[in-house]
Amino acid sequence: MLQGLDIAIILAYLIGTILIGLALRKKAQKSKDDYLLGGKDLPWYMLGLSNASGMFDISGTMWLVTLTFVYGLKSIWIPWLWPVFNQVFLMVFLATWLRRSQVTTGAEWIHFRFGKGQGGNRSHSIIVIFAILSCLGFLAYGFIGLGKFVEIFIPWEMVSGYVPFNVPAEYIPHFYGVVFTMFAVFYSVLGGMSGIVWTDLLQYSIMTVSSIAIAVIAWQAMGENTLTVPDGWMDPLFGWQLDIDWTGIIEEVNQKIASDQYSLFGLFFMLMVFKGILASIAGPAPNYDMQKILSTRSPLEAAKMSSFAIAALMPTRYLMVGGFSVLAIIFYDDLRLETAGILDFEKILPAAIGEFVPVGLLGLLLAGLLAAFMSTFAGTLNAAQAYLVNDIYLKNKPDASHKQVKRMNYGSGMIVVLISIILGFFVLDVNSILQWIVSALYGSYVISNTLKWYWWRFNGEGYFWGMLSGIIPALIFPMITDTLDLYYFPVILLISLAGSIAGTYTAPPTDERILKVFYKKTRPWGFWKPILKMVKEEDPEVSRNKNFSRDMFNVMIGVIAQTLLVLIPLYLILHENVSVIISIVVLVICVIILKKNWWDHIKKEAGVNLK
Question: What is the pLDDT of the chain when averaged over all its residues?
């Protein structure tokens, strides 16, 4: 139960977000770029921390704690569903490629790549639809996670007397979600990107302090108690089968493993890596991550921002995830995980917080986790607003006055929030919508958005039909089958590939003037030989991008380093001191390699290609 000090800390945070929104309102109203991109003058480290804060979301943290509780160190691979290593691809080369375009949104980038003919306009329309679908999905995902979380700490009995209508038990989390969503709406709609970034910095500071405190509590508990877990729980390596059996320890967990459908872990991992690599080379999806990249001052700062986001997020988040997972296992009998008589493992995080966190720190932690929700919600909302205002409203009304644009910014924000809240009422749990977003919906995105970077002949018609032929089954399949979404990802992929190729050859190539401008600015590697030849005729100084092998090697080293940043805090909490030392040594080696083979290289190129 919350005490007076905890409530005061939470209220202080909520008031702080309102003040930030009000303070940055005038800056946000200066122009479209000031509102949507912070005027492109925010420092890379602030954007990096903001991006890390946006990824440190409450629903994702609940999911990760559940995974770590159930699967132990093998759980470090499951977030590759996103895939989490897409940040490494961004750091190494894609963030610089994207930022060189100097556009405002991912949909505007489509015109940069395909022009404004029929194919370009169709492609622009389909990416706006995808962006809004994915933003609504992420908003509903955060909305339901927040409601489940708050329900633990503010029992319905405390507030039911103040609510003038009856709320069925299954919709109580949704009621809480609506209430706290309004605070995120306030500072993000008023303050725009600058308001989001400054509020994210406050949130990240709170979460860092809280994560360290929880890790210390768990580390002490490990020294005083025995951690009873199945064989293989402490080992990140795995075989074809998962082989995690909780029989005789916590029997109910076996039912959770069966429902997750991860038992054939080798097959699951191969599909996940295959999907993850394709999704990563496709570039960032049109959400808050892309908007942060486009908000940086330069392509070089975009690369720095992406690398800093990895370093800021992983250790901090996993100190908290590992801490709560260990505490939940040790003191499992003290947790109350039932909802309406049904065991709900997604309540492990809030139940562990209520049981193990002392007064004062509880208020700070809850403020931080509420902030984590609002950070993700606000960033995603900003991305949705960017597409609605920049790519729909201003496209149809380019002469709109500053006052009209401001009203549209506010109005579009409110419309998106209302729709996401309605969708949230149809979501059963965090995992179900997460699986749909990262597997089904993103399956429709992968092929078209891979080909756009690396194949000159791929045109706007190919992009449109590839995306459309993927989005349709992504919406239909979940209605007709209960199979894990990742397992029909290859089917969606093949349908989308067929649509992309067929669409490409039903229309002529993109105008060579558009392709030459795109190639000269972006400088991608891939199948661009005919365009490179035309560009060299005009500018003999332009040379082919020969960095493919270097980039792929750096990606591999970066993924190893990122994985170690996940493992080190877990090993530390578990008192696996030898593993901690070995992991740190390998991490230092990875950093040295990246310093010489990635950082020094892109700095050298900056004066020529990254202006």
Answer: 82
